[in-house]
């Protein structure tokens, strides 16, 4: 399988953590790709018309995107435990993934405002509004930190990726100071080998 990959994408990281947790990392060939909203990577567009990563080329000829689809596909290959099959646990895990994905989306959009949009066209209110979504997500996660647990599922993995990306791009937010229960959970959860792995992280 081939995964179009950029080391600082939190959505790519989510796929890589799932692969590692499922012992599938050796079956993935990482193909370096550009994650840019304007100058799209031609090699990615050939497989994903949106030009976004991650995108996965499977061994049987499928092209899968986005991270939610890829992670569930990887889990299905080994009938893994990352996606609860049914009941309340499934909906909680999927909702937690949606919350974390929304936080990552907001972080990425805020960053694009700084590094992609021409300076004369930047809109500070847009950036601050995106980061307000992140703060709201952190407040919600603080109240639910006790439900996350240390056993990885798609919800907890997505939350870990959102927090990792905050540390990478917005360290000045210092979320650990304001959200101690979430910080305590992440300190333990992030020690697991699949969560702590580093895939050529660059700035």
Automatic annotation (TrEMBL):
GO cellular component, one term: cytoplasm
Gene3D superfamilies xref list: 1.20.1050.10, Glutaredoxin
All residue ranges annotated as the GST C-terminal domain in the record: 86-203
SUPFAM superfamilies linked: GST C-terminal domain-like, Thioredoxin-like
CDD domains the UniProt entry points to: GST_C_6, GST_N_3
Entry superkingdom: Bacteria
Name recorded for this polypeptide: Putative GST-like protein YibF
Domain GST N-terminal: 1-82
PANTHER family: GLUTATHIONE S-TRANSFERASE OMEGA, PTHR43968
């Amino acid at each position: 399988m081939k995964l179009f990959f950029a080391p600082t994408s939190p959505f790519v990281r989510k796929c890589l953590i799932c692969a590692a947790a499922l012992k599938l990392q050796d079956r993935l060939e990482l193909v370096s790709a550009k994650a840019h909203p304007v100058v799209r990577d031609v090699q990615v567009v050939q497989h994903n018309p949106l030009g976004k990563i991650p995108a996965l080329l499977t061994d049987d000829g499928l092209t899968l995107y986005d991270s939610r689809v890829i992670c569930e596909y990887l889990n299905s290959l080994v009938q893994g435990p990352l996606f609860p099959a049914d009941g309340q646990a499934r909906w909680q895990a999927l909702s937690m993934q949606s919350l974390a994905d929304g936080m990552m989306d907001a972080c990425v959009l805020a960053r694009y405002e700084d590094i992609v949009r021409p300076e004369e066209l930047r809109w500070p209110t847009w950036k601050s509004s995106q980061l307000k979504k992140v703060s709201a997500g952190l407040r919600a996660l603080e109240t639910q930190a006790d439900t996350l647990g240390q056993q990885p599922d798609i919800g907890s993995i997505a939350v870990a990726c959102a927090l990792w990306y905050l540390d990478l791009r917005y360290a000045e937010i210092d979320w650990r100071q304001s959200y101690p229960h979430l910080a305590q959970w992440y300190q333990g959860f992030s020690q697991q080998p699949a969560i702590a792995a580093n895939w050529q992280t660059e700035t």
